[in-house]
Amino acid sequence: MYAIVDIETTGGHASANGITEIAIYIYDGREIMQQYETLINPGQPIPRYIQSLTGISDEMVADAPSFDEVAGDIYTLLHDKIFVAHNVNFDYSFIQYHLAKAGYQLRSKKLCTVRLGRKIIPGLPSYSLGNLCKSLQIAVTQRHRATGDAAATVKLFGMLLQQDVNKAIAHALNAHSKESFLPPNLPPEQVTGLPGNPGVYYFHDQKGKVVYVGKAKNIRKRVNSHFTGNSAGRRRQEFLRNIYSISHEVTGTELMAHILESVEIKRLWPIYNYSQKYIEFKYGFYSFQDQQGYLRLAIEKRRKYSTPLHSFPLLIQGHQMLRGLIREFDLCPRMCFLQKGEGPCSPIPDHTCRGACHKQESPETYNLRVKAAIIHMQQQQPTFAIMGTGRDAFEQSCILMEKGRFYGMGYIPRDTAITEGLQVKEWLTQYPENEYILNLIHSHAGNHDQELLKFS
């Protein structure tokens, strides 16, 4: 037995909006067995654009029952039926949410006439209820009212039942089928065709634009997890409505998927990715020559398009490293901005300044030691490759760190002997680095020493 449902609401998501009208037709596949419809007082004003669309005004629902008053009747009609609606997840999310608030837990199998229409009657120009009914010559009265749209959905569903020669409805109701959870505009074969490998996946909108990028250890499993549940929030409902297609890129390892996801989020700036999009103000060493010709070392917040000599996540790490360079290469603390003010600098433990800060030492002499300190600092940064599984049995993956900087990653033929960092570069794609990627790589390297190839 099917419960064919349509509702009108005050907005697009259940958690902040109410139902203004509901119609339920109990249908056995041949005839309507029972019919229920009522206006509902949503307990909040109906926006004017929705009043214009539906014709339901605040005055019309002023004396209507609240949802709590009719929740028992609605639950009785729905709880043991197959829930059918046009774009079923919208109607179901509203009704399930408001029934739960009233103390009823609805758990129904669902059928979506948008999705079924695409499968059973392919090739139509549009699968919105109005256009679909127009294409199939189904008369619709009271468009955008619950009773009129539900009655049209009954006729549409009856036609789908008759023309379902490939058993699309039975497949959708199969316990192992997840079609009822999929976004209404996403072809199911795009999900079933996804690989079970690590990689990055992209959700595209109607125009093909990437609206979300994700990473996964198992792409198929992770994509399916986006569509389970019936969250009533605005963000999730809008997100699901805007997914029209999926693309993906397989990576050899989960670490590579994490790195590629971060690169792609910053490249594409997808509307539904909320983390990793913003500029990271980690710290870096910078050098410049002042007006007197002295080379100065400074610690600054890393700017978006700058390239520091060396970077680090915590300011205290930079200060520790800078003090070590000052002691080892006899640099001036004031010229390195560790001390403020005019005049000679104050001594630091185990170090005596040679006087560059008050011009007792020439720029040429002092700058030789600054350049030596910079070379030493850069040489201390490690160069290594993280080797891992490839995308198939004939290759191995490689992530290259060069003197503390992320160079890039790619795939190398499995039988290639590697003895130095330059040797792998021809196989790799260069990528920009960020603090998140560096932390990922260093954390992985610290825990997987057996995967590292270290180069001098």
TrEMBL record:
Pfam families hit by this protein: GIY-YIG, RNase_T
Domain GIY-YIG: residue ranges: 196-274
Gene3D superfamilies: GIY-YIG endonuclease (3.40.1440.10), Ribonuclease H-like superfamily/Ribonuclease H (3.30.420.10)
Protein name, entry field: GIY-YIG nuclease family protein
Annotated organism of origin: Chitinophaga rhizophila
Lineage per the UniProt record: Bacteria, Pseudomonadati, Bacteroidota, Chitinophagia, Chitinophagales
